[in-house]
């Protein structure tokens, strides 16, 4: 059994790219009720009406949480459900990932024999550019060499959406870290994978994902502040060996932001973080 959680925020169920593509792909699959269960965790202000047969015969749980405590709370809820139903794997999904039949085939039937593999991830593209997975020992992962297909012995990081995580591993690390309610939770998660002596397996499958935070001019100040706060915590507290280089990287970012980013509050917040570090 596998448990899948789809986290929504201010998105109608029928407008979610993930749910649209998932519903379409599930039409080609039969007898899945004993293989996978779904959770829609809705952080939106208003509760939605959900078709209980949205995913065919598969069990579906809808949770509305107007507190909007981010994805870590949603994932921890899903982990509790996975433990209760004795699922071996937890599938993490955002609302804006286009899933394919090939991907779903691999995920549903996946049964990793290597006990040292804690995470299964696809290759993710955004606007035609590969964004995940990447090696996690550099600040320019998209410009350097990138992981291929197969088990990765060198530390990699992947975005949350599309990642299949072993439940036993999640239990060993006490679930998802609430220090990262939204941003950098994926960095922390894959850091813990390798810190704990596990590996990541990259599937031979590609997905498209809408990553809106790639352009600072399209990111609100509130969201940027959340990203920077979480980023600082990650390098200061966890990825400590990169912290000195991270501080230098912030200075370079500041210069670019003053020149290229229209909202100067973003650059000023970067400056504030530099002065406090």
UniProtKB/TrEMBL annotation:
SUPFAM superfamilies in the record: Nucleotide-diphospho-sugar transferases
Pfam family, any one: Glycos_transf_2
Residue intervals of the Glycosyltransferase 2-like domain: 14-130
Name the UniProt record assigns to this protein: GT2 family glycosyltransferase
Lineage summary: Bacteria, Bacillati, Bacillota, Bacilli, Bacillales
């Amino acid at each position: 059994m596998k448990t899948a959680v789809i986290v929504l925020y201010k998105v109608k169920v029928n407008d979610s790219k993930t749910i649209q593509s998932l519903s379409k792909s599930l039409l080609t699959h039969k007898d899945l009720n004993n293989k996978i269960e779904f959770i829609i965790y809705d952080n939106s202000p208003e509760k939605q009406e959900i078709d209980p047969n949205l995913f065919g015969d598969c069990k579906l749980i809808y949770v509305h949480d107007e507190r909007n405590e981010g994805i870590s709370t949603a994932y921890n809820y899903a982990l509790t459900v996975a433990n209760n139903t004795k699922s071996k794997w937890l599938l993490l999904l955002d609302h804006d990932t286009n899933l394919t039949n090939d991907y779903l085939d691999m995920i549903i039937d996946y049964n990793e024999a290597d006990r040292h593999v804690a995470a299964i991830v696809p290759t993710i593209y955004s606007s035609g550019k590969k964004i995940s997975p990447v090696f996690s020992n550099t600040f320019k992962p998209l410009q350097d060499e990138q992981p291929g297909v197969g088990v990765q012995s060198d530390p990699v990081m992947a975005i949350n959406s599309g990642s299949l995580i072993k439940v036993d591993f999640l239990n060993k690390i006490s679930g998802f870290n609430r220090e990262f309610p939204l941003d950098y939770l994926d960095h922390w998660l894959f850091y813990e994978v390798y810190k704990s002596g596990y590996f990541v397996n990259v599937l031979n499958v590609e997905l498209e994902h809408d990553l809106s935070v790639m352009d600072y001019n399209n990111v609100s100040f509130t969201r940027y502040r959340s990203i920077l706060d979480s980023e600082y915590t990650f390098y200061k507290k966890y990825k400590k060996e990169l912290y000195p280089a991270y501080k230098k990287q912030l200075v370079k970012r500041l210069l670019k932001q003053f020149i290229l980013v229209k909202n100067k509050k973003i650059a000023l917040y970067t400056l504030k973080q530099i002065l406090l570090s």
